[in-house]
């Protein structure tokens, strides 16, 4: 949830920086505007990458890690395949909507204020819309703690579907030139609910519905499929609009119909196809996964091996470490 909040602040800053650059360039010199905006966006991820190099892994991860062990891909797929499919599908649907609506928000707004509006107007309203992500993720954090990530996700996408259906049904009135502010508020609530639900919780579900040993691969596959959803969403968005033909109102309604319907599907998947997530879920999953591997002939002594270490050397090291810790404890007590 902390991660998603930082991402959402990135969306806000990512919209605000082009606004500042466009204002500094007096809505001209377009080449300078886009080059400067992209250049500024490169700086912060580099800082984050460098800082991540100094973060140590927790003890539980080190104990159950498969970094230097042979990963039982087939057994893992049999054990977690269905969960991975469900989590990946929810992530696909979320990114399908979130990224396409985020990228095309200025296009959607241009239907209200016209195509001749200056860049500062476009980027300014886009920044206002992105600001709605923040209350969504901030309110979603305590809701996730109270309801649990599964039900918080389902509640968020269900309410998002309701707002989306309302927007689609009443789009003609919301799209009037004098209703730009009202449209932005309703549209902002629609986006905020997306952060309240899957935005805050899909990564958490991906990290906690599997064992520690394969978490990185499991999470990576789910996240990658989510990004495929982002690509597909941004690619098909214009085609969804074009399906309405020359009807301007219908072309704006169709994306909300599609997205809201997918939100209902996400809510159903979260409620009926994912397990309960509690404080001890990871420990339980580690025990279940380890027992499953042992029952199918996998040597679980490989878990937690260090670089260049074999199972035999790990067995020799473990009793010595235990004796050393006992000796230290006796000295402390004495």
TrEMBL record:
Gene3D superfamilies according to UniProt: MFS general substrate transporter like domains
TM regions (residue ranges): 32-55, 75-94, 122-139, 151-172, 178-197, 218-242, 254-274
A cellular component term, taken from the record's GO annotations: plasma membrane
Membrane topology (UniProt): Multi-pass membrane protein
Chief localization: membrane
InterPro entries: MFS_dom, MFS_sugar_transport-like, MFS_trans_sf
Biased composition (Basic and acidic residues): 307-319
Location within or outside the cell: Membrane
Record keywords, A-Z: Membrane, Transmembrane, Transmembrane helix
Region (Disordered): 307-334
GO molecular function: carboxylic acid transmembrane transporter activity
Start and end residues of each Major facilitator superfamily (MFS) profile domain: 1-278
Protein name listed in UniProt: MFS phospholipid transporter Git1
Organism: Colletotrichum higginsianum (strain IMI 349063) (Crucifer anthracnose fungus)
